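Training component of the fellowship. As part of building independent skills, the fellow (R.M.) carried out the full modelling exercise for a liganded target. The chosen ligand was KG4. The inputs are recorded below so that the supervisory panel can assess the work.
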Amino acid sequence: MKLLAIETSCDETAIALIEVKNKGKKVKFKILGNEISSQIEIHKEYGGVFPALAKREHIKNLPLVLDKVLKQSKIKEKDLKKINAITVTTGPGLEPALWTGIVFAEELSQKYNIPIIPVNHMEGHIFSIFPQKGKAFTVENKKELFPMLTLLVSGGHTELVLIKDWQKYKKLGQTRDDAAGEAFDKVARMLSLPYPGGPEISRLAREERNSPLEEYPQGEVEDLNTSTPSLRATPQEWNKIQLPRPMIYTKDYDFSFSGLKTAVLYLIRDLKKKNPNILNNINIKQKIAREFEDAAVETLVHKTIKAIKQYKIQTLIVGGGVSANTYLQEQMKKAIKEINFSSPTTKKIKVHFPSKALTGDNAIMIGIAGYFRIKNKNNIKNTKNIKADGNLSL
Ligand code: KG4
Ligand code: ZN
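Fellow's submitted model of the complex:
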């Protein structure tokens, strides 16, 4: 089966052509072509994604991206009629952006008479773990896979979802305000770091974790951004860099990242009162980034582990842009290892993160999620009446 997948929910115009091969109980995904055209540079100056601009860029990029995918796949455009289905993201996301992908899919669908499969972007993030280098995935062995749990952490979402069977979702909890990725982006902005902020915060936090400073460093401190000696803070100010873990011990599976972000805002405001240039000091920035990442990751890991224990989870899938965070990966794997170690007689819990290239938005995951819909004869619609839904939930 060959699938063309289209993703335009946010600021990446992505198309992939995937071949799915079934061998007994195993399924293998061969990526014939895959292209992502990122708009990050365009949205950077707004510090976030600007919907009208995203729409314009998607419309411009879609035919160019398709061209590249066809070239990579060594397929001529007229041979698109041999494709079995087009899978396209219909939500959640920015509606003007989603519509561009849907309209493009409809044009191809009519021209080449191919059915369209609507795909939920978050379901795509769940399925982004499947193409692992050279490995086939055994789909039939349900006893070993289910119940599954997924932690979806992106720029727009933070949710814990129980998966009892393919496409059977039960949301256990979600953020009550900001998404985890959004908090990373906003805190990065407070620290004058570029958008998207996740990777930047993570880099600074890693630097501080690799060579932690117990107290405020003595002597002249050079600001790495300007190469000038920067103003120092007092040890009291240094020790003040501590943040809360909002909602970590609440009984539910909800999260709150807005409170954490506000705590960073107040912390910076207090530090600046005495020392307006304090953020010129790279050590201070590193320490704030580390403390923020610690707080966010601790909360995510704590609630995920609680759900794993309560629902006797066999498989954990972490997906979405924030799943690229190496500290989150380390801490989650460590916590799962501890559970597996403490109960040697029960089956080992498996944890999966997407490969680095598939943590962010891409079309491969939309193709694979669409394949599982086709396989389970779920939601196969024809080209008519496909609508964008910015708030579509799982
Ligand atoms: O899934 P995604 O690419 O787009 C949405 O569907 O939202 O997620 C983007 C989010 C951004 O907020 C970005 O800052 C965050 O993922 N992100 C990270 C990292 N890489 C990307 N957050 C934390 N650590 C990272 N390494
Ligand atoms: Zn996403």
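The panel noted the following from the submitted structure. Residues 121, 125, 154, 320-321, 361 surround zinc ion (ligand 2) (CB under 6 Å). The chain has a mean pLDDT of 90.
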